[in-house]
Specification:
Length: 145
């Protein structure tokens, strides 16, 4: 059974504005704490399904992630992990932005699923939620405050 990670936040900025920023699959270093660099590997467009971003994180760790789907109408993209220093497998995730009715803000959610050895499951769920998703969404909130 896949392990699930989830985090969400409400931002004061309109959903279309937040989505215009987040839909750039190559701008992770602009908003995620701990990311030193992020670049699309072949230099192509950052919204092309199939493109791969190379992320350099803490301690020069390397993550490679592939954009597997994007929907501008519903404001979400999906991606999968190709390479990671974490002891996880089959990681897939989705980031979605939705308008908050009555206020003009936006709701952002980030959810992922992955597999891990039994001994690593809980630690990896907590790491992904508490050390990746939550700090990133908090930083996004500051960016759009």
């Amino acid at each position: 059974m896949p392990i699930k990670s989830y985090a969400s936040t409400v931002l004061s900025a309109p959903a279309d504005e937040v989505w215009r920023f987040l839909r750039d699959f190559g701008n992770l270093a602009d908003w995620m704490p701990g990311v030193a660099t992020c670049a699309i590997e072949d230099g192509g467009p950052a919204d092309r399904v199939g493109c791969v971003r190379r992320v350099i994180g803490p301690g020069d760790t390397v993550f490679r992630e592939q954009l597997s789907g994007m929907d501008d109408d519903d404001r979400f993209y999906r991606y999968r992990m190709l390479e990671s220093p974490l002891p996880i497998r089959d990681y897939v995730a989705r980031i979605r932005v939705a308008p908050v009715t009555g206020g003009g803000g936006s709701f952002v959610e980030w959810q992922g699923e992955f597999s891990a050895d039994a001994a690593d499951e809980e630690a990896m769920r907590k790491t992904i939620t508490d050390a990746i998703y939550n700090p990133a969404l908090e930083a996004l909130g500051k960016r759009f405050s």
